[in-house]
Write a structure and sequence with these properties.
The chain is of the alpha+beta class. It is built from 5 helices and 6 strands, in the order H-H-E-E-E-E-E-E-H-H-H.
Length: 176
């Protein structure tokens, strides 16, 4: 086999390996994307919130990872749980997908309350993501312009060489 065919085969093998790695990553992320999304949300929401129940009872609700979470059996959202301490100091645990019931009254979802408290953090992340996106877009545009310029310059050099010939040999002889 000549070297040109070997180089082409190597390029094909490298391309196949790169595509396989990318597809493997895509499949791994897509199969767990809901759990990944919940993990990101968990890192964004605050560690605790101070609430008032029935407009008179102050209560602090905390978040934590669920030690009993089984990814094979449980919903993805249940990898986290919320808890508070009642008036006797006893810990009361609320699953992430359950409602917060206090003295027989449904006070809504603690998960929704934590998300509401995280709105400022989410707004900051959104602003940063937009800024990074703009910078990346500008960098890509600049890189494309530079690439175009070098390609255009090479084309101009090739046209000059065809039109006038290669003068490098003549210049080097004159300098000696």
């Amino acid at each position: 086999m000549d070297t040109i065919k070997k180089k082409k085969i190597k390029k094909i093998i490298v391309a196949v390996v790169i595509i396989a790695v990318i597809l493997g990553g895509v499949f791994a992320v897509s199969s767990h994307k809901i759990e990944i999304m919940y993990r990101i949300v968990y890192s964004i929401i605050p560690d605790h919130i101070d609430a008032t129940i029935n407009d008179e009872i102050p209560l602090t609700v905390y978040k934590r990872l669920n030690p009993d979470y089984d990814p094979q059996k449980d919903d993805e959202i249940n990898f986290m749980e919320f808890y508070y301490y009642d008036e006797n100091g006893k810990e009361v645990v609320i699953a992430a997908n359950d409602s917060f019931i206090y003295d027989g009254v449904n006070n809504g979802s603690p998960f929704a309350a934590f998300l509401f408290e995280a709105k400022d953090t989410i707004a900051k992340i959104r602003t940063i993501a937009v800024s990074v996106g703009v910078v990346i877009a500008i960098a890509v545009i600049v890189a494309l312009i530079i690439f175009w310029f070098f390609k255009w310059s090479k084309k101009q050099d090739d046209e000059k060489e065809k039109k006038y010939g290669n003068n490098q040999k003549h210049k080097s002889k004159k300098k000696k």
